[in-house]
Amino acid sequence: MSLILNHVNYIYGEDTELAVHALKDINLVIPDGQFIGLIGHTGSGKSTLVQHLNGLIRPTGGAIYYNGEDIHDKDYDKKKLRSKVGLVFQYPEHQLFEIDVFKDVCFGPKNLGLSQKETELRAYAALKQVGLADEYFYQSPFDLSGGQKRRVAIAGVLAMKPDILILDEPTAGLDPKGRDEILDQIAKLKEETGITVILVSHSMEDVAKYVERIIVMSRGSVLYDDTPREVFGHYKELEQVGLAAPQVTYIMQALAKKGMPVDTSATTIKEAEQEILRALAL
Amino acid sequence: MGIIKTDKLTFEYIRRDEEGNVEGITRAVDEVDLDIRQGDFIAILGHNGSGKSTLAKHINAILYPTEGSVWVDGMDTQDESHLWDIRQEAGMVFQNPDNQIIGQVVEEDVGFGPENMGVPTKEIWERVEESLKAVGMYEYRKYSPNKLSGGQKQRVSIAGVIAMHPKCIILDEPTAMLDPNGRKEVIRAVRALNDVEGITVVLITHYMEEIIHADMVFVMDQGHIAMEGTPREIFSRVEELQELRLDVPQVTLLAHELRKKGVNLPEGILTIEEFTEAVFAFTGRR
Fold first, then answer.
1. Is B257 in CB contact (< 8 Å) with chain A?
2. pLDDT at A104
3. Which of A139, A237, B147, B239 is the most exposed place for a label (fewest CB within 10 A)?
4. Is B93 part of a structural domain of the chain?
5. Could you tell me if residue B283 is inside a domain?
């Protein structure tokens, strides 16, 4: 079970004067159960890439295989693919529409043709997975807070039981606690179900804290594809493409530069704390 | 009286059901007293739903208080005869740059505000030039806004506000949708407006590291001002901030955690330089 991108190219407005080469020869393997961060500056091709993963955009060159099958084959069941590769767009709460939270989450599984009982079971399980309290289930989604609405929207995708969950900036506009809550919940979900998670984010701190693999996009190409430690070790190169490392990486660099014998590869507060305590022999 | 002053500012939203009957009342802002001096850089923090944006919308008369008063440069916002003066003196920048840009070309967009104020054509162009230079976007004046990055668009939005020669500018989460570089560009531009042009800045944000240079920070909770002080004072109170659903910059948090483990660093460290100095001072003491 995996998603493979083989020499994927995408050109917006191909064969016109306004052609833009948005993805250039992308080769990626996304195996089961990974927590992946996808980062890149505005316009680097992240969103275009993500829309390829569930077949919303057809590559202008190359192919995408899901579990060994070409998703753009004539006979390929795209509807099924879209239930297996769930995509949560930016500000997904703008897509809520039903009269209550529970009905909204039922919409996806219902459209898969499942029985009412199965649909409701899935909706219930999904709302539990995102940590929404029962008291909100029969409220209008529009009466909820921003963070709660976003949970409902994510539950709507989870109710389709995807194998791969892609979240495009799931924490944009949330307060710090709200950011942590959503990401903790997603990490827990990943632990419990073994789902693959792809987190598109502009927060290097969040990416460093949660993911095991980072894919860095720049100008339509994959610039780095490695562990957070390795990727953020290239902080100077990241800055040149409009990104940065988490602040702790810069702290460790500053300490080392002043002569403190620390390993500079820490990317989270916890790692930095342990490393500094070690260097201070405490 | 400062450039922005509020006296027991209270705002209530009336919730209605589908038939329009009153279901209840939400007090979004609750007896807030502010007095902001001309030229200050003010930050407002607070969790989602704490009342920050509602408060901000009172400063340029988008909303009016249910009780209490707001004055901008001495003008009461409820006095309709001052409405356009207030909107010109207190400009507002919102979260999503795509909702704020209307021109087909950058310089046209920036000229929209002064044009509507009836500024003579020659002066409009002067203002467009100086505003775009102030945010570092002059070289993009002939571009179409949709060719720009998020940070660039947001700086064009800011230029559009400063072309109206405001005394103060209110930014409501201007960096929430931007990448790290875009965030840096916008914050740098905002700081320059404050330092160089002396424009009063009110910055609302969820990114703690953006406000370490503010003169004063207000933290809102349930419509009240729950904490106020300099960034150093505010960020020294890590646990209190966390209870209010906020956090502190990573460098501040790292120092705080190390302190708990017996590394005696001061609270309220705001920059990497301060942090390294404090660590070396600590090793020197041992």
1. yes
2. 95
3. B239
4. yes
5. no
Averaged confidence pLDDT in chain B: 93
Do the Cβ atoms of A280 and B263 come within 8 Å?
Answer: yes
Q: Please check whether residue A238 is in contact with residue A37, taking contact to mean a CB–CB distance below 8 angstroms.
A: no
pLDDT for residue B10 is more than 90:
yes
The predicted pLDDT at position B232 comes to 96
Closest chain B C-alpha to A72 CA, distance in angstroms: 31
Least CB-CB distance to B257: which of A147, A178, A269?
A: A269
Could you tell me the strand order of the sheet in which A35-40 lies? A85-88, A164-168, A196-200, A35-40, A213-218, A221-226
Domains contained in chain B, number = 1
**B95 located within any domain:** yes
Coil, strand or helix at B49: coil
Q: What is the pLDDT of residues B126-135, one digit of tens each?
A: 999 999 998 9
Q: Are strands B4-16 and B90-93 parallel, antiparallel or unpaired?
A: unpaired
Say whether B249 and A247 touch across the interface (CB within 8 A): yes
Segment A254-264 mean pLDDT: 94
In chain A, which residues touch B (CB < 8 A)? 40-43, 145-147, 172-179, 202, 204-205, 239, 242-244, 246-248, 250-251, 254-255, 258, 260, 269, 272-273, 276-277, 280, 282
State the residue for tokens 């609270």: B267
Query: Is B124's pLDDT higher than 90?
Result: yes
With beta carbons less than 8 A apart as the criterion, state whether A210 and A179 touch. Answer: no
Which positions 153-182 of B are in contact with A (Cβ < 8 Å)? 173, 176-182
User: Could you tell me the residue ranges of all domains in chain A?
Assistant: 246-282
Q: At B258, is the pLDDT very low, low, confident or very high (cuts 50, 70, 90)? A: very high
pLDDT per residue over A105-140, tens digit each? 999 999 999 999 999 999 999 999 998 989 999 999
Q: Tell which residue, B172, B166, B232, B193, has the closest CA to residue B41.
A: B193
Which chain A residues are closer than 8 Å to B246 by Cβ?
Answer: 175-177
Q: Closest chain B residue to A256 measured between Cα atoms?
A: B276
Residues of the domain holding B29: 4-248
The pLDDT value recorded for residue B99 is 84
* Chain A residue with Cα closest to B94: A173
Give the pLDDT confidence score for residue A90 in this predicted structure.
Answer: 85
Residue B278 contacts A where some CB pair is shorter than 8 Å: no
Q: Is residue B63 part of a domain?
A: yes
Closest partner residue to A177 (CB to CB) among B95, B179, B245 is B245
- In three-state secondary structure terms, B88 is helix
Residue environment code for A81-115, b if the CB has 16+ CB neighbours within 10 A, otherwise e: bbbbbbbbbebbbeebeeebbbbbbbbbbbebebe
pTM of the model: 0.89
CATH number at residue B124: 3.40.50.300
- Calpha distance A245→A205 (Å, rounded): 8
Q: How far apart are CA A102 and CA B205, in angstroms?
A: 32
